[in-house]
Specification:
This protein is α+β, with helices and mostly antiparallel strands and 279 residues long. The chain has helices at residues 2-20, 33-63, 101-110, 116-119; strands at residues 21-22, 27-28, 81-84, 89-93, 169-174, 187-192, 200-204, 231-236, 246-253, 270-278. It binds 2-acetamido-2-deoxy-beta-D-glucopyranose (3 copies). This is Sodium/potassium-transporting ATPase subunit beta.
Length: 279
Protein backbone atom coordinates (compact mmCIF):
# COMPACT_ATOMS: atom_id res chain seq x y z
CA UNK A 1 0.00 0.00 0.00
CA UNK A 2 2.68 2.31 0.95
CA UNK A 3 4.79 1.30 -2.08
CA UNK A 4 2.09 2.46 -4.48
CA UNK A 5 2.08 5.88 -3.04
CA UNK A 6 5.81 6.29 -2.86
CA UNK A 7 6.45 5.82 -6.57
CA UNK A 8 4.60 8.83 -7.98
CA UNK A 9 5.95 10.93 -5.12
CA UNK A 10 9.42 9.89 -6.12
CA UNK A 11 8.76 10.78 -9.74
CA UNK A 12 7.33 14.11 -8.73
CA UNK A 13 10.44 14.88 -6.78
CA UNK A 14 12.69 14.00 -9.67
CA UNK A 15 10.84 16.32 -12.14
CA UNK A 16 10.96 19.05 -9.53
CA UNK A 17 14.68 18.51 -9.12
CA UNK A 18 15.03 18.49 -12.90
CA UNK A 19 13.31 21.83 -13.01
CA UNK A 20 15.76 23.35 -10.51
CA UNK A 21 18.72 21.87 -12.30
CA UNK A 22 18.56 19.49 -15.20
CA UNK A 23 21.98 17.84 -15.59
CA UNK A 24 21.13 16.46 -19.02
CA UNK A 25 20.34 19.75 -20.76
CA UNK A 26 22.28 21.93 -18.28
CA UNK A 27 19.14 24.02 -17.68
CA UNK A 28 18.69 25.88 -14.44
CA UNK A 29 15.07 26.79 -13.63
CA UNK A 30 14.13 25.98 -17.19
CA UNK A 31 16.77 28.16 -18.85
CA UNK A 32 20.31 27.60 -19.91
CA UNK A 33 23.08 29.73 -18.51
CA UNK A 34 23.39 31.81 -21.67
CA UNK A 35 19.63 32.35 -21.74
CA UNK A 36 19.80 33.60 -18.13
CA UNK A 37 22.73 35.84 -18.94
CA UNK A 38 20.81 37.38 -21.86
CA UNK A 39 17.68 37.98 -19.85
CA UNK A 40 19.65 39.57 -17.00
CA UNK A 41 21.49 41.77 -19.48
CA UNK A 42 18.19 42.79 -21.03
CA UNK A 43 16.71 43.88 -17.70
CA UNK A 44 19.91 45.60 -16.65
CA UNK A 45 19.91 47.69 -19.83
CA UNK A 46 16.16 48.27 -19.63
CA UNK A 47 16.12 49.53 -16.03
CA UNK A 48 19.37 51.39 -16.53
CA UNK A 49 17.72 53.22 -19.41
CA UNK A 50 14.62 54.02 -17.33
CA UNK A 51 16.74 55.35 -14.46
CA UNK A 52 18.75 57.45 -16.88
CA UNK A 53 15.62 58.86 -18.49
CA UNK A 54 14.14 59.72 -15.09
CA UNK A 55 17.33 61.44 -13.96
CA UNK A 56 17.56 63.41 -17.17
CA UNK A 57 13.96 64.69 -17.12
CA UNK A 58 14.25 65.52 -13.42
CA UNK A 59 17.45 67.44 -14.05
CA UNK A 60 15.97 69.35 -16.99
CA UNK A 61 12.91 70.26 -14.93
CA UNK A 62 14.98 71.42 -11.95
CA UNK A 63 16.96 73.69 -14.27
CA UNK A 64 13.78 75.58 -15.06
CA UNK A 65 12.91 76.21 -11.40
CA UNK A 66 13.65 79.45 -9.65
CA UNK A 67 14.81 79.23 -6.04
CA UNK A 68 12.96 82.37 -5.15
CA UNK A 69 9.49 81.95 -6.49
CA UNK A 70 7.10 79.14 -7.27
CA UNK A 71 7.01 78.23 -10.97
CA UNK A 72 3.29 77.69 -11.26
CA UNK A 73 0.58 79.71 -9.58
CA UNK A 74 -2.65 78.51 -11.13
CA UNK A 75 -4.52 81.65 -10.16
CA UNK A 76 -3.42 84.95 -8.71
CA UNK A 77 -4.76 84.26 -5.27
CA UNK A 78 -6.37 86.66 -2.89
CA UNK A 79 -4.85 86.69 0.57
CA UNK A 80 -6.44 85.50 3.78
CA UNK A 81 -6.64 87.66 6.85
CA UNK A 82 -5.30 86.44 10.18
CA UNK A 83 -5.09 87.83 13.68
CA UNK A 84 -2.59 87.72 16.49
CA UNK A 85 -2.87 86.36 19.15
CA UNK A 86 -3.30 83.22 17.10
CA UNK A 87 -6.77 82.19 18.17
CA UNK A 88 -10.30 82.93 17.11
CA UNK A 89 -11.73 82.88 20.62
CA UNK A 90 -10.20 85.29 23.06
CA UNK A 91 -11.55 84.46 26.50
CA UNK A 92 -10.05 85.64 29.75
CA UNK A 93 -10.57 87.08 33.21
CA UNK A 94 -9.05 90.52 33.33
CA UNK A 95 -8.49 90.34 37.08
CA UNK A 96 -6.39 87.21 36.75
CA UNK A 97 -3.16 87.75 34.83
CA UNK A 98 -2.57 84.02 34.47
CA UNK A 99 -5.67 83.89 32.24
CA UNK A 100 -4.32 86.35 29.66
CA UNK A 101 -0.53 86.17 30.02
CA UNK A 102 -0.26 83.72 27.11
CA UNK A 103 -1.93 86.25 24.78
CA UNK A 104 0.42 88.98 25.97
CA UNK A 105 3.50 86.79 25.61
CA UNK A 106 2.42 85.73 22.16
CA UNK A 107 2.02 89.33 21.01
CA UNK A 108 5.32 90.33 22.53
CA UNK A 109 7.24 87.54 20.83
CA UNK A 110 5.45 88.12 17.55
CA UNK A 111 6.44 91.79 17.61
CA UNK A 112 10.13 91.07 18.21
CA UNK A 113 10.80 91.13 14.46
CA UNK A 114 9.25 94.62 14.34
CA UNK A 115 11.55 96.15 16.94
CA UNK A 116 12.47 99.69 15.97
CA UNK A 117 16.22 99.06 16.24
CA UNK A 118 16.01 96.39 13.54
CA UNK A 119 13.54 98.24 11.34
CA UNK A 120 15.61 101.43 11.51
CA UNK A 121 18.45 99.64 9.71
CA UNK A 122 16.31 99.31 6.60
CA UNK A 123 16.13 101.72 3.70
CA UNK A 124 13.03 103.86 3.96
CA UNK A 125 10.51 103.44 1.14
CA UNK A 126 8.22 105.84 -0.67
CA UNK A 127 4.80 105.66 0.93
CA UNK A 128 1.88 104.93 -1.39
CA UNK A 129 3.87 103.33 -4.24
CA UNK A 130 4.79 99.70 -4.88
CA UNK A 131 8.37 98.72 -4.10
CA UNK A 132 9.03 97.07 -7.43
CA UNK A 133 12.42 95.37 -7.59
CA UNK A 134 12.11 93.15 -10.59
CA UNK A 135 15.79 93.09 -11.50
CA UNK A 136 18.23 90.42 -10.41
CA UNK A 137 19.59 92.21 -7.34
CA UNK A 138 19.39 90.08 -4.19
CA UNK A 139 18.43 90.31 -1.44
CA UNK A 140 15.53 92.64 -2.12
CA UNK A 141 15.15 95.69 0.01
CA UNK A 142 12.27 95.40 2.45
CA UNK A 143 10.42 98.39 3.81
CA UNK A 144 10.56 99.09 7.53
CA UNK A 145 7.51 98.63 9.72
CA UNK A 146 8.29 99.76 13.24
CA UNK A 147 6.29 98.47 16.13
CA UNK A 148 6.09 101.97 17.56
CA UNK A 149 3.60 102.69 14.72
CA UNK A 150 1.18 100.53 16.71
CA UNK A 151 0.96 103.17 19.45
CA UNK A 152 -0.96 101.89 22.46
CA UNK A 153 -0.89 98.41 20.92
CA UNK A 154 2.87 98.34 20.41
CA UNK A 155 3.52 96.91 23.84
CA UNK A 156 6.09 99.66 24.40
CA UNK A 157 3.98 101.80 26.72
CA UNK A 158 1.59 99.15 27.95
CA UNK A 159 3.38 95.79 28.21
CA UNK A 160 -0.01 94.10 28.70
CA UNK A 161 -1.39 95.27 25.33
CA UNK A 162 -4.57 96.44 27.06
CA UNK A 163 -5.50 92.96 28.26
CA UNK A 164 -5.28 93.88 31.95
CA UNK A 165 -7.60 96.86 31.53
CA UNK A 166 -10.12 94.83 29.53
CA UNK A 167 -9.39 96.71 26.30
CA UNK A 168 -7.38 94.12 24.39
CA UNK A 169 -5.35 94.75 21.26
CA UNK A 170 -5.70 92.46 18.26
CA UNK A 171 -3.20 92.56 15.42
CA UNK A 172 -4.55 92.01 11.93
CA UNK A 173 -2.33 91.01 9.04
CA UNK A 174 -2.73 89.78 5.54
CA UNK A 175 -1.11 86.53 4.45
CA UNK A 176 1.86 86.97 2.16
CA UNK A 177 1.38 86.25 -1.51
CA UNK A 178 4.32 86.44 -3.84
CA UNK A 179 3.90 89.12 -6.46
CA UNK A 180 0.58 90.44 -5.17
CA UNK A 181 -0.01 94.12 -5.89
CA UNK A 182 -3.17 95.29 -4.19
CA UNK A 183 -5.09 97.88 -6.18
CA UNK A 184 -6.52 100.99 -4.62
CA UNK A 185 -5.89 101.70 -0.98
CA UNK A 186 -6.55 98.56 1.07
CA UNK A 187 -7.65 99.17 4.63
CA UNK A 188 -9.04 97.16 7.52
CA UNK A 189 -12.61 97.68 8.68
CA UNK A 190 -13.74 95.84 11.80
CA UNK A 191 -17.37 95.65 12.78
CA UNK A 192 -19.29 94.19 15.70
CA UNK A 193 -21.50 91.42 14.44
CA UNK A 194 -23.95 91.18 17.32
CA UNK A 195 -26.94 93.48 17.32
CA UNK A 196 -27.13 95.66 20.38
CA UNK A 197 -23.50 95.58 21.42
CA UNK A 198 -21.60 98.68 20.68
CA UNK A 199 -18.17 99.92 21.66
CA UNK A 200 -15.39 101.84 20.06
CA UNK A 201 -12.46 100.39 18.25
CA UNK A 202 -9.24 102.32 17.91
CA UNK A 203 -6.88 101.52 15.05
CA UNK A 204 -3.11 101.83 14.93
CA UNK A 205 -1.82 103.25 12.67
CA UNK A 206 -4.90 105.46 12.59
CA UNK A 207 -5.06 105.37 8.78
CA UNK A 208 -6.03 101.65 9.09
CA UNK A 209 -4.39 100.97 5.74
CA UNK A 210 -1.73 98.66 4.39
CA UNK A 211 0.69 100.94 2.61
CA UNK A 212 1.38 99.88 -0.98
CA UNK A 213 5.11 100.21 -0.36
CA UNK A 214 5.04 96.80 1.37
CA UNK A 215 4.09 95.16 -1.94
CA UNK A 216 4.97 93.16 -3.93
CA UNK A 217 6.54 90.44 -1.83
CA UNK A 218 9.27 88.45 -3.55
CA UNK A 219 9.38 85.26 -1.48
CA UNK A 220 11.10 84.02 1.63
CA UNK A 221 14.54 83.60 0.13
CA UNK A 222 14.75 86.73 -1.99
CA UNK A 223 13.03 88.96 0.55
CA UNK A 224 14.73 87.73 3.67
CA UNK A 225 14.03 90.63 6.02
CA UNK A 226 10.47 91.27 4.81
CA UNK A 227 7.92 92.01 7.51
CA UNK A 228 4.22 92.23 6.83
CA UNK A 229 2.47 95.48 7.60
CA UNK A 230 0.11 95.26 10.56
CA UNK A 231 -3.02 96.99 11.77
CA UNK A 232 -3.73 96.91 15.48
CA UNK A 233 -7.31 97.14 16.68
CA UNK A 234 -7.92 98.05 20.28
CA UNK A 235 -11.35 96.95 21.44
CA UNK A 236 -12.55 99.61 23.88
CA UNK A 237 -14.80 97.29 25.86
CA UNK A 238 -16.60 98.56 28.91
CA UNK A 239 -18.13 96.96 31.96
CA UNK A 240 -21.45 96.46 30.17
CA UNK A 241 -19.67 94.31 27.57
CA UNK A 242 -18.16 91.91 30.08
CA UNK A 243 -19.46 88.34 30.32
CA UNK A 244 -20.84 88.58 26.79
CA UNK A 245 -19.45 86.72 23.82
CA UNK A 246 -18.75 89.49 21.34
CA UNK A 247 -18.22 88.65 17.69
CA UNK A 248 -16.05 90.94 15.64
CA UNK A 249 -15.45 90.73 11.92
CA UNK A 250 -12.51 92.45 10.25
CA UNK A 251 -12.46 92.81 6.49
CA UNK A 252 -10.05 94.14 3.98
CA UNK A 253 -11.73 96.87 1.98
CA UNK A 254 -10.88 99.55 -0.53
CA UNK A 255 -9.13 97.27 -2.99
CA UNK A 256 -10.76 95.74 -6.05
CA UNK A 257 -8.42 92.75 -6.33
CA UNK A 258 -8.59 91.63 -2.71
CA UNK A 259 -11.65 89.45 -2.20
CA UNK A 260 -13.51 89.67 1.09
CA UNK A 261 -16.85 88.01 0.48
CA UNK A 262 -16.11 84.54 -0.82
CA UNK A 263 -18.97 82.22 0.16
CA UNK A 264 -16.77 79.14 0.35
CA UNK A 265 -13.72 80.59 2.06
CA UNK A 266 -14.58 82.66 5.09
CA UNK A 267 -10.96 83.63 5.73
CA UNK A 268 -10.41 85.18 2.34
CA UNK A 269 -9.93 88.86 3.05
CA UNK A 270 -11.79 88.64 6.33
CA UNK A 271 -11.56 87.13 9.76
CA UNK A 272 -14.22 86.60 12.40
CA UNK A 273 -13.28 86.15 16.03
CA UNK A 274 -14.99 86.29 19.41
CA UNK A 275 -13.98 88.00 22.61
CA UNK A 276 -15.29 87.31 26.08
CA UNK A 277 -13.91 89.11 29.07
CA UNK A 278 -14.85 88.48 32.67
CA UNK A 279 -13.64 90.19 35.79
C1 LIG B 1 -11.71 86.49 37.95
O1 LIG B 1 -10.58 86.49 38.76
C2 LIG B 1 -10.82 87.09 40.04
C3 LIG B 1 -9.48 87.15 40.78
O2 LIG B 1 -8.82 85.92 40.72
C4 LIG B 1 -11.85 86.23 40.79
O3 LIG B 1 -12.12 86.85 42.07
C5 LIG B 1 -13.12 86.20 39.96
O4 LIG B 1 -14.07 85.38 40.59
C6 LIG B 1 -12.83 85.69 38.56
N1 LIG B 1 -14.03 85.82 37.76
C7 LIG B 1 -14.58 84.79 37.12
C8 LIG B 1 -15.80 85.06 36.35
O5 LIG B 1 -14.07 83.67 37.15
C1 LIG C 1 18.04 96.99 -9.40
O1 LIG C 1 17.08 97.94 -8.99
C2 LIG C 1 17.50 98.73 -7.89
C3 LIG C 1 16.31 99.58 -7.48
O2 LIG C 1 15.40 99.76 -8.51
C4 LIG C 1 18.72 99.56 -8.30
O3 LIG C 1 19.16 100.32 -7.19
C5 LIG C 1 19.84 98.60 -8.71
O4 LIG C 1 20.95 99.34 -9.15
C6 LIG C 1 19.34 97.68 -9.82
N1 LIG C 1 20.36 96.69 -10.08
C7 LIG C 1 20.66 96.30 -11.31
C8 LIG C 1 21.71 95.25 -11.42
O5 LIG C 1 20.12 96.75 -12.29
C1 LIG D 1 -17.13 99.16 7.48
O1 LIG D 1 -18.05 98.10 7.34
C2 LIG D 1 -19.37 98.43 7.67
C3 LIG D 1 -20.21 97.18 7.63
O2 LIG D 1 -19.92 96.45 6.48
C4 LIG D 1 -19.88 99.53 6.75
O3 LIG D 1 -21.18 99.90 7.13
C5 LIG D 1 -18.94 100.73 6.87
O4 LIG D 1 -19.32 101.71 5.94
C6 LIG D 1 -17.52 100.32 6.58
N1 LIG D 1 -16.63 101.44 6.86
C7 LIG D 1 -15.88 101.98 5.92
C8 LIG D 1 -15.01 103.09 6.33
O5 LIG D 1 -15.91 101.57 4.77
Amino acid sequence: MSNKEEKPADQNQSTWKDFIFNPRSGEFMGRTASSWALILLFYLVFYGFLAGLFTLTMWVMLQTLDDNAPKYCDRVPSPGLVIRPKTLDIVYNKSDSSKYSHYVQHLESFLQQYNDVDQDKKQPCVSGTYSIQDNETLPKNSCPFKRSLLGQCSGLHDPNFGYSEGKPCILVKMNRIIGLKPLGDPFINCTIKKEGSDFNMVYFPATKNFDLMYFPYYGKKAHETYVQPLIAVKLMLEKKDYDNVITVECKIEGSSNLKNDDERDKFLGRVIFTVKITE
